[in-house]
Specification:
The structure is a homodimer of 87-residue chains. With 87 residues, chain A is α+β, with helices and mostly antiparallel strands. Chain A is globular and about 35 Å long. Chain A is built from 2 helices and 5 strands. In chain A, helix 1 (11-24) packs antiparallel against helix 2 (39-52). The first copy, chain A, has helices at residues 11-24, 39-52, and strands at 2-8, 26-29, 32-36, 59-65, 71-77. Chain A has a 4-stranded antiparallel β-sheet, covered by helices on one side. The A-B interface holds A 4, 6, 8, 28-32, 46, 49-50, 53-67, 69-80 and B 4, 6, 8, 28-32, 46, 49-50, 53-67, 69-80. Strand 5 (71-77) of chain A pairs antiparallel with strand 4 (59-65) of chain B, so a sheet runs across the interface.
Chain lengths: 87, 87
């Protein structure tokens, strides 16, 4: 499956959260990571994040795609992270 | 179609960019909007943004889904924006 992860994390926890996310996904832009990931790895990522965030203050959204066949990605302006064409 | 938009915009332009995006999509989190949008409206949105951003400094990514049938959205921690179940 393919995951787009966006987070909104309190400053003091950002570095830690980003480090966790980077183990599983590719950084593409400020607060955004994406990548192919297995169901098991996604569960691991979510477990690690659950322990690291403050659920009263932070927010993480996972867009989980069973296939990228129906998705197109378009970038306007700077391409910040590494980018493989996912289609 | 369904669009997830994430932006990374220089501070001085954020308010203007957000205002444009909000005309077409729903704010869900810091720097993230999403929503159903027609092809024509998406083109309009992209045109407005192209005029408003600085392409040397800013970045906007559009994840354009032909269908949300294969997408699941999971939120961890705070749900910041209004949220309709998209499935």
């Amino acid at each position: 499956m393919y995951v787009i992860l966006v987070y909104d994390i309190e400053e003091s926890r950002v570095a830690k959260i980003l480090k966790i996310c980077r183990k599983y996904l590719k950084w593409v832009q400020n607060s955004v990571l994406e990548g192919e990931i297995s169901r098991v790895s996604l569960k691991k990522l979510q477990l690690e994040l659950k322990r690291a965030i403050n659920e009263e203050e932070d927010s993480v959204i996972f867009y989980i795609l069973r296939t990228t066949k129906y998705m197109k990605k378009e970038i306007m302006g700077q391409e910040k992270g590494g980018f493989d064409n996912i289609l």
